[in-house]
Amino acid sequence: METATQTAPGLVQMRKVNKYFGSHHVLRDIDLDIARGEVIVVVGPSGSGKSTLCRTMNGLERIDGGAIRIDDQSMPEEGRALAKLRSEVGMVFQQFNLFPNKTVLDNVTFAPIKVRGRPAREARAKAMDLLERFGVANQAGKFPVQLSGGQQQRVAIARALIMEPKLMLFDEATSALDPEMVRGVLEIMQQLARDGMTMVVVTHEMGFAKASADRVVFMDHGQIIETAPPQTFFGNPQSERARKFLSEVLRD
Amino acid sequence: MSFFAWPYWGMFASGLLLTLQVSALAYAGALVLGVIGVMCRTSRILPLRWMGTAYVESIRNVPSLALVFIAVFGLPQIGLTMPLITSVVVMLAIYEGAFACEALRSGINCVPVGSAEAARALGLSNRETLFYVVLPQAARSVVQPLTNVFIKTVINSSLIAIVGLPDLTGIAERINIREAEPMLFFGVGLAYVAIALLGGLLGGYIDRKVRFSR
Amino acid sequence: MTNSPIDRMFDPPGPRGRRAIRLASIVVIALLAGLAWLVLYRFGKSGGLDRQAWSIFESPNVIKLLGRALYATVRAALLAGLLALVWGTALALMRLSRHRWLRTAAAAYVEVTRSLPTLLVLYFTILVLPFYGLRLPIYGQLVLALTITNASMISEVLRASMLSIPAGQLEASLSLGLTRPRAFWYIILPQGFRAAMPALVAQLVYLLKGTTLGYVISYEELLYSAKLIGEYTNFILQSILVVTAVYLVLNIILSRVSIWIEQRLSLRGAAASSKGK
Question: What is the ipTM of this complex?
């Protein structure tokens, strides 16, 4: 469902965004608007730039041209302003990236305590609450290396959510998981979507896109080729490249 | 002659003491220089990076004995006069400092980039990411290489015998020039091996401690 | 900006940061230039930069002497290097043997000789061995001492390298019917060598630097020759500096050759296939 974005600016606004890795033009003239509460699923072949696109939204990747605005603030270049923006945008990585030298509980409470200065007791209570919701509360005292991939990713989602972000970025969050654990994590993401979180999800899981996306963004060679609600995109793709991609992906 | 009536215990003990003192001081200096070196090599300020790289690369490609001689003959010529033992300790520290720097650098390089990205994504600044996420992880992989640098320092400290200082190696040489006393060599060799083993054990202990702490 | 992990861990500087860095760079360069000037000034004042001091290196006699010394240094390093490599390989294989007595004996030998200063071993060969009838020429004494200590270091490098080869390699070789010794000789050892190349070259650099110990026994390697020149001309520091520069160049060349060899090897795909990344 398209939400009206003509009067109020959306949560995320990208205009003519370009990025190069050396001579490789990895993002070409990206224009994208994401409204509050929208769930955007980004799909496309490998090397299409979808991960890079996701990472530009919290400044992990710098852009070489164009502008990005998050909540009507332009993306800061450095320093405190950038850190503050990032504390309001949550990111979940393909490789989980939990801090190996901290326990699960410390991983989750780390940011509220160090970045926002919240008291430890409050942070721990909120953390346990989240870990409970995701079914990993009993792992709180363990170290990440002792957990399975699926458990680690749930902890990673808790770590991002405890900061009460305006926007959640999922960079191929289930691609490194064994098949039987993928479903658990996807369910958490689906619940988040139902609860109204603004999400940008880069994924290969077409089932998730069909069930939870408000819009599907198809990328290839650094460009956004097609944007459409899932029924339109999967049922009647407009572009040749999208049709080709879907036929290859949905073959199995 | 009984074991305890061996006439060389005194000299052996003083040689051992000198070796330990020189090694400890040089190692401490090497650690300091290593930290400064790694800060230079990872700095965003390019001239500092070049300096750090020049320092490490020169030292690694130059014999330590040549450096000792440069210190002994050269420092007075630029106006720095100091007792012989000070100049060799300083030179040894400078030499081992390059290796300590590389040990520290490899520790930092071993930290997964993703950890730092996750920290930044949560809103930590560069400095906070360094102190709260990168360095604690780097510390875990740095103990073993630094222990090796210590052992190398002890071994290299033997060079001071060439300029006449009576450390373990110096004692062995001095006495054997007068009369053959192979026992002294075995004793001195044993002392070096013992120091290396003890150093290794201590390093292993610290390593285990650091790995499992929060 | 180079692309090492450290650079990717942190945010690149923004415009404010870049300005600060430029400023700091200028300050650092100024400080370094000042320091360099100070050192050279002091050095010059004490006569170190005089024409006389450095013109001695234009004399044909000096050049010939240094040339001979270079030859002596390289000769000792190559022979000791070769012997240490052979002996080190043998030790490594012994430590990986199935027979416990062989493993322990080799391990004990390696742990001891690895912790000894080469200088001590050298003194031993010149002061103690003669009493037991072993009177070697100077060249032999240096090579022996270098071999004894470097062989154990090489053995550790090779052992670690062979241990890092995936167990599947040995399993596959044994399944094909090779005996354990042949499996090691034809499959494990070559791969271990290839993987250990950089470390082995570093060890060779260390060994080359170790030839300076020939100074102690009047073997006419580079550093000793610097002393000789110094005694003739009174400019010993300059000779040492020149000789140090020669070592610097030699070792840098050695390292470059090693990088070149590594590139050739990896082009042939051998290293890549055994890692399976």
Answer: 0.89
